[in-house]
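Recall from the previous lesson that a structure prediction takes nothing but the amino acid sequence as input. Here we apply that procedure to Fumarate reductase/succinate dehydrogenase flavoprotein subunit from Flavobacterium jejuense. The sequence below is the only information supplied.
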Amino acid sequence: MKLDSKIPEGPLNKKWTDYKDHLKLVAPNNRPKLDIIVVGTGLAGASAAASLGEMGYNVKAFCFQDSPRRAHSIAAQGGINAAKNYQNDGDSIYRLFYDTIKGGDYRAREANVHRLAEVSGNIIDQCVAQGVPFAREYGGMLDNRSFGGVQVQRTFYAAGQTGQQLLLGAYSSLSRQIGLGRVKMFNRHEMLDLVKIDGKARGIIARNLITGEIERHSAHAVVIASGGYGNVYFLSTNAMGSNVSAGWKVHKRGAAFSNPCYVQIHPTCIPVHGTNQSKLTLMSESLRNSGRIWVPKKKEDAEAIRAGKLKPTQIAEEDRDYYLERRYPAFGNLVPRDVASRAAKERCDEGYGIEANDTNEGVYLDFSSEIKSKGKEVAYAHGNHNPSEEEIIKLGKEWIEEKYGNLFEMYEKITDENPYETPMKIYPAVHYTMGGVWVDYNLQSSIPGCFVAGEANFSDHGANRLGASALMQGLADGYFVLPYTVSNYLADEIRTGKISTDAPEFAEAEKNVKDSIDKFLNNNGTKSVDYFHKRLGLVMWNKVGMARNEKGLKEAIEEIGQIRDEFYKDVFVPGSAEELNPELEKALRVADFLELGQLMAMDALQRNESCGGHFREEYQDAEGETLRDDENFSFVSAWEYKGQDTTKAELHKEDLKYEFIKIAARNYK
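The prediction returns the following tokens.
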């Protein structure tokens, strides 16, 4: 396998502009002759399908949900980054580029990240034109807030539901194209295989999840925009249906899978309550703008809180350890996610956790200081220069409610605690995955004609994603990158003609899918799919989670192999193939997770360094910070599939070259 990143020559700030100027085009009268399949209708998929449909291509869009509006992009809360410098605090395209590279611990491609920063401003203009209701300042200008890992305000937001509003904007554009007949929407369809003819991606095999029918769909190009693989851990902030199958099927057909060990642990999640929990709930990182994170300074206070003998509000200010402010004074509570997560784990491992769960893991996110500060500010703005404590608290709570009200409401519904009165309990949890299908500068995988966008690819975040950059990447890929690069590829396909689904390659792929389904349904095992998924998740969290070491990773590779063998021997899938069968859907997805989980452990084992979300306990400094090894590991790992036994996978390396920035130790102190 040869990896060619196709990064253009020339100055960094001109690469994308010059590259676009020389890409091949498809004339408007030829576009209706060409078919494109888009798998996934979150921000990346919906924006890509809408844009390509608007250009005149025939687009088929697929989602396993009953509507594109249910894509997991809807769950993103805090905001979307863009370098518009509305706050006049020194932001620029270069600074957004640099913060993203640094936040990713110098493990991302320079050219891809700079392109992302370049088009970020266009995204905001596009979304405003669609009617996305971004928050605005008193004068009517778009408002911004800060996110972790930066020292400027560049995050545009819509209360605590930014992802939902952006997805509705993309969905409205997609719906317009569906109404015009340029996009054909296939709801409740799941991609189960990629079809290659003469080495090129030429279509997919999909299952109608309502009827069970196996369908063949052909196209001149296929775009995979199916999200990340966080649910390999079973418990994560992802929707229960989120899975890796579309990306993994592409990998099994010959596309390299990159950096699978790079997983983001988000620091502000509601802690695990019990062993029967099926998913975790995220509290937006935007809350770290206003909340201060702390644990008790005294272990006996932490023990008393866990025992229910002491309330957090009874802990005096001098007895609170605001550990992020103490350790990282320059950034404080706004350090990047991986740094904040490890710091919380360290405090809880030392016995200062405050949640009365199985592991005593939890820290406080406290808004009392912000309520008082903003309450006083609002009172002054209203002309009251001597407000009472009661007035300050009332006005401060109203300010917080306007900014974060729906998040506070959600927290109270889940925990039955009022976060205006009592600090939120939070703890890190699996959230986003930086790894994914390897793509070149065109977002094309190592399979010609197969493009991968959004979280499903590996390209922009390195070893750690900065908050509010996922929405930015998804929409950048769909609105402003793929329309150029897919067209460049399709310029050579104008004379190809319609791709027939009667080709033997379609028949073979369909047979493989049906055989796999029949195998599960006729297995007659004794254990449910979730039984195996939970076992996999425990191994992944304990040994391939927030901290990894050589011994644990080797054990994980062995244990996951054993779980996979047991899964195929003893899983029980009820029902039939010709009906709505959620257990069958889960079985097919967990089969892929079992292979991926092993690859994640292998990738983490070969990377003898700590960087971003990949923390090897053997590679840390005296203060517990990451120790990168730029001399030996400044590369993208790209794995080639060599069969169901993932230990046979072959590693390829794409060296990362930094021409325009200086690599430095990542310091937020």
